[in-house]
Amino acid sequence: MKIDAWWFENRQSESEILQPEVCFPKSHLGIYAELEDLLYPFKISVVAKKEKEEIYSREFEVNCNKETTEAFDITCNDCAFVFQSITKEVKDLPDEMHVKIFVGEKEYSDIIKCEYARIYGKITDFNGNPYPAFVALRRIAFGSDYAEMAVWSNGEGEYSVIVPKGFYNNFFVCDHAYGQTVLENWSWQMLIDRDEEHNFKIGNGEVYSLAQWCNNGGGRTMFFWFRPMILPSLNRKEYETEINHIKRCVNDISPELELSDVKVTLNGRDLKVISLQKIYETGDDYVMPAYIIQTERPSYKASDTVGKQTVIVEYNNEERKDNVGYLAQSQGRAQFYFKDFFALSLV
To answer: Is the pTM of this model over 0.85?
Structure first.
């Protein structure tokens, strides 16, 4: 049994929400639960407290595996669900949430201690110009349009938001130009455990599904895997390739990258890039190009190479765009832990 719960308070006025039709942050509570099984109907009870005083109490009845009402939104599978409910009537941040779930004769419950941190920074394009946009923070998978945990920057690209501490599947940064002139900036497996500054660059590409691991049995190196994509109008191709002696159709909307296009930083320090290798992400009905970057591992003092790490991967073919016929620019990041000076432990 697992219950995770969070509380988000939107502190922006309507005039600060630059493009409400694209992203409209809403105060809400969220719950993710994994149970032995789910039987319908079942009930969810939530009590929120601030300094031991009750500031919110409500019970919900869920009747099917996907339901959206005025009171809540929920998506369930056989034994887990993601739940959200708007809480605009509460103008405060609780320090404790009491969650109970009643399924048939069984009761599941937990008390979640609520802590918060400030995430702030600036959003720019690749020329350093301010790029007003929203930052959506998605705690579970890709979340729901029902209630975004998000914040809009001001006209100078500056943003600041108070959010619940915890693990986040991804951050998503963009605006209404998505898919037309720009694509989103992605952050992956983010851990909010303190106030942090994150400055984002918006370009016409993506660093999608960034992941990392260390070479612990050979040279002192690191590997970073990602799938790059750019606007399909710039470089879309379909062709056939052979993977493990099987012919596959490739849907290719990626830029053709070279070593000189790629930059990798770890906690703000450049990592020497050793190689860039193209591979294919292969699914049941798709094949798409991806890349593995190999870098040197940092050789700073031991205290700098343990604990939480933030890697940023960028590609920018500005110097080659005339030769390849298109510009490709993007930035993405991910967070992970070095367990100790010799090994990598992922979040």
So the answer is: yes
